[in-house]
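Um, can you check?
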Amino acid sequence: MPFKALVGPVIIAHRGGSLEVPENTMASLRHGVAVGADWQELDVTLTKDNKLIVIHDDTLERTTDGSGQVITKNLDELRKLHAGEPKWADYVVDRLAKLGIDAPSFAGKYPNERLPTLDEVLRIEGAQLMIEMKAHPDPKALAFATVDAVHAANMGGRVVLASFEAPVLLQANLRDSSLPLLGLAEDVKGIETMLRLPISVLGVSVELAEEALRMTPQGIAVWIWTVYTPQEARRLAELGVHGIITDAPTPVLAEIRKEPVDLMVER
């Protein structure tokens, strides 16, 4: 499975490319495929009635017109919500402002978008999915359900299962050790924890890129989140990272794929 490109890093459309299309929707994930991103990242958790729903937050207010905890709602309730006008987290707005980027508004442009199920996303033609399993009170239930959904869709060769939660990754590995894992880490301690697991990819923030490259043994790819500009993508590519997780896949792809990267580190 190509976690590293032959030349330069692979490009992962974060939540389908949330600077370009409303995050974690069928529209955004199809967009990630259409613009040529190698992978499309999405977030998944379980509903109250144990169905797999695609959403980043554990609450509904930011990305839908609903309210309350996701895990307290049945799938039928969640499917009635509008997901085409997400708001932006304050920390993202602040970071975008420092980069001179205005957080986009999708008001009125995607009136029919709803929270998708994982089963729907797994049927998107041409998709190659980084499925982030969120923190959940029952890691085994979430991991097993995700693995089973991947197999039901015959997508075993086109997914990598990701999480910040070591118990979720371990449960996924117990269910099926043939599915590749991606360990997400927020700090050096997290990197150390993830490198003790049977992961194929380590995912870290931009700030940890150099540390992750130093710490990670050969055979494990290093993917970096979250990249917003082509300039930052170019810097990371020249540093030698193997994957760039970006909310702006269109300009990042235009930058990275326009010419070979000179300073790739083969791992």
